[in-house]
Write a structure and sequence with these properties.
The protein contains 3 helices and no strands. It is mainly alpha-helical and about 100 residues long.
């Protein structure tokens, strides 16, 4: 028993997936989002807080060891997460560039 092949109708792509027109060479929403994420990591307050916490602990101020360790670990985890996301973005870009059209 064979099933007849129906013609392919046009597929409506949701607005969230529509290609974005670039505002200029190298522009676009993705680039601005990536730049914002990089800026957030560069100006991250958790790294500053971790440094201040270590300084307070070493100088003998009222900073406890466990809060210092938590602040340092939080800053380290945030940075590692950013590096992993960056690696995945670069890997996806390289994979797209290898695709043949």
């Amino acid at each position: 028993m064979s099933i007849p092949i129906a013609p392919i109708t046009s597929i409506r792509v949701p607005e969230a997936v529509q290609p974005v027109t670039q505002s200029g060479p190298g522009g676009g929403v993705f680039k601005s989002m990536l730049d914002a994420a990089i800026q957030h990591v560069e100006t991250n307050s958790s790294q500053t807080n971790a440094g201040q916490s270590v300084d307070k602990f070493l100088s003998g101020e009222s900073e406890e060891l466990h809060s210092t360790a938590l602040a340092v670990q939080r800053a380290e985890l945030e940075f590692e997460l950013f590096l992993q996301v960056r690696n995945k973005v670069v890997q996806a870009y390289q994979e797209i560039m290898r695709m043949q059209m």
